[in-house]
Design brief:
mainly alpha, flat
């Protein structure tokens, strides 16, 4: 659980770097997934990391959705 692990990192900048690295790692797992269930599981991991990043930046998923729509 990402939130549970956050207490291990005392430096916020380091925590954010680790989260971004984890996001890339999880996206690579999506790329490797073959079956629908594997894709779903890996996308769920991506969403968990994304939510942790959103929370760390004190944003909301609505902020992301607005940015997506504005593109």
């Amino acid at each position: 659980n990402i939130e549970a692990e956050s207490w291990l990192v005392k430096d916020e900048e380091t925590y954010l770097k680790l989260l971004k690295k984890k996001l890339i790692e999880e996206a690579e797992e999506v790329e490797k997934a073959i079956t629908e269930s594997e894709v779903i599981a890996e996308l769920a991991d991506v969403m968990e990391v994304l939510q942790a990043i959103v929370t760390a930046y004190k944003l909301s998923l609505a902020d992301l959705e607005k940015a997506r729509q504005d593109k």
